[in-house]
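Hello again,

I reread your note about wanting to compare the complex against the isolated chains. To keep things tidy I'm splitting this into two emails, and this first one only covers the full assembly. Below are the input lines as submitted, including protein chains and any nucleic acid or small-molecule components. They are followed by the predicted structure of everything together. The single-chain runs will come separately.
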Amino acid sequence: MAGKPGIPRLFPPAIRKQQFERRILKRVALRDERAFLTGLYQLDETENSYRRPDEPDQEQIKRLRAIASAVRHNRGVLQPAKLALIGVVAAVAAAFVLLFADALVERAATRGLESLVQARVEFSQLRVRPLQPGLSFDSLSVANPRKPFRNLFELGFTEVRLDLGQLLRGKLLARNIETREFRWDTRREVSGALPAARTVGPADEPAAALELPRVDQMVSERFAEIDPEELIRSHFNELHTPALLAELGEGMQADLQRYRGDIPQLESRARAAAEQAQSVSDINPGELRSVGTIREAYRTVENAYAEVDGAAAAVQELRDRAEADLQRYREELAAIGELTAADLAYLQDLVPDFRLADVSAIAAFVLPELYEPLNERYEQVLTVWRVVDRLRARERATSPAYRREGRVVEYPARDYPRVLFARIAFSAGDRAARDLYEITAAAISSSPEIVDAPSSVQLTRYDEDKEVAFSAILDMRTGRTDELDLASRFEGYRFEIGERAGMVSFEGAEGRYNLETKLQLGRSSLPTGTIRLAIEDLQLAVPQGDRIAASARDILYSVPRVTIDLELRDGGRFRASSNLDEPFLAELRGVFEERRAAVQHRVADELDRRLSAELQAREQQIADMAAYRDQVHAYLVRVRGHRSEVAAVRDRLERRTAELEDEAERRVRQAAEQARREAEQRARQEAERQIDRTLDRFR
Amino acid sequence: MIVNALARVVAALNSNRRAGEVAAGVSCAVVLALMPPANLVWVMLFAALFFIKVNLSIALLTLAVLSPFAVLTDPLLDAVGYTVLNAAALQEVFIAWYNLPIAPFTGFNNTLVAGGFLVGLVLWIPVYLLARVFVQLYRNTLRARIAALPPVRWFARLPLVQRVTAWVRWANGFYQRVG
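Full-complex prediction:
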């Protein structure tokens, strides 16, 4: 009994010695409080206990309560009340998790997948099994980030069994995932685009679209009507003939202008020559009797001749220059023909030739129909590629996040990546009945380095006479050149195409095709691969009177199977070829050459039309120059006539002078003869006298 | 907050609590300060502070004071941890631990975690004994002398200090009743 009300039960009036010392006094930490207790209780050796001789007052009771509280607190090392509280909280939390685990996991899985795909992910009836770790859901749809109203794929009821041990190590390891339904590229009622607040990181860059060889467009452009006027106008500055004609025209114009300035000069010279000739025409040499008179007349005539001869020389020079100019211009105009031919050849070369190297006309004929589905598959591959890349980025980001980092010592262990789906399988139908839909995926992981195996997906689909086989191997381990290796085969598919206009127009086409694709995507992220399209049972309806279409149909019908091979090079560019390229190109080439010749003929006509006016103008200038030359020649004839007249007077004067000189010579000669005879006579007489004297002496 | 923490420390030192409770708070804080946080071992040790009878105020204050300086011991802790984690005799044990489900979250194979934990454990007893001696010395001798100092007496008579002291006393009583 505690005695007085308010005294804690720990402090009754008598307490056994052992209990007081071991369970009370020892648990009082403060020396003052221990002294208070030993003062309040006295040891009774006979009873082997402590007794309280007096009742405590209110102050002492208050102090006893505090001590009792401290004694209780100082008992033991655990805090049971807090432990119980935490236990209750843990139980409530566990119950909460059990009750709401489905919703929580669904939300976490949805957000996780959405951040990977960057599009809406929707689970239906996701259930978590905590005891046998795993989950299942009735359906899952993953929207296409590029096409918000399409799903990348949909799964039906799916069961995922997780490895508990690895789950406790933070690894999501599913050894087997079985699904009962699989569909891809399905339609959505609501947009699958994520709201801006839920997107993580920047949006994906739009993938570069595939570049198919646009032969159709190339050929159409080359077949387009060419306007000769426009062709010549746009290249006029590059032609030589018009430039030369203009240059000649300017030169002749300048020369003719100069010639016109020479005409008065010619007239005055001719008139002066005529006057000179007239002035000497009155001289009659026969009437001149003395040499002095004749000499004076001769000088006058000689001066007149010199002037008239100078005028004649000047006029002749002008005539010779006009003749030379005329000759030069004629020669240059004659050379225009060659130049025009060169210009025409240049213009005709501008008419496109039929050169379609490195492309396939047959491929161009078919590929426009394939472009959309091929590009769509290409985009899907790139989308998957991005998802995988994000998964890898997360794996890389899982290094310990200690601020004080230290070193991590690794020990041998069977390690798993953060996420590993060892096997995913879906199968429906019966292979024997050729109604089978089977998908198997293996080693889908966030770290292929740890798994040390490539991820793979195989799809097989039989539907009556149609067959689809698809295989994807994604090897992202270090040192692998081709990370993504895709192969697919579609057999027995029918196609039907409506009316189409283009290089080869047709009203309708149908047939059956097989498609085989092989695609490799390396670390450079530039895809390479091949696609082989084989078309059988082709039926083509072509428009009446379309020669190309009819030829194309004949060529297409000439083989049992049309094969088109596409080689995808780096950067999404295709090289195409087919087994009908040569005959089809030859046919196209024939048609094209005909059209080209016609265009070239029209270009020649147009050039001739443009140049003929200029040529006529130049011919007129040539005629003007010839007329001028003739006019100068007439002046030359006139001046030469006057010069002849003066020359005749001079000749007569010269003859008269000669006559007078002959006469004088004759007289001189007669006088000399006479003198000689007289001298001889005198000499003979002298000699005879000498002889006579000599004889006389001897005698 | 600092005044509150100091007041609670003073209250803990003066309260009728075992000296070992305060000393254990200091020792546990030393272990926690030496280990880098964000691993399961650290979290469990920290959670244990709430379930065992250690003085939480002293522990948290000591942890707050020591943590910034713990980085100075990293080279020593790293060397100790590396040596222990690579000790040939312990390899089988560590390999077994490493393959346990929860192991990746404990970070025991990190040299700072292992080194900090081991050095903390070694230091736990001396720190505990020293702290306990200090508390007893304070309670038996220093407290009366400090309280008798004129500046302390002047300080204790300030109205604000009296109000804070009353509040701390009430809070301490409430804490003791609840705890």
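For quick reference: DSSP finds ten helices and no strands in chain B.

B.
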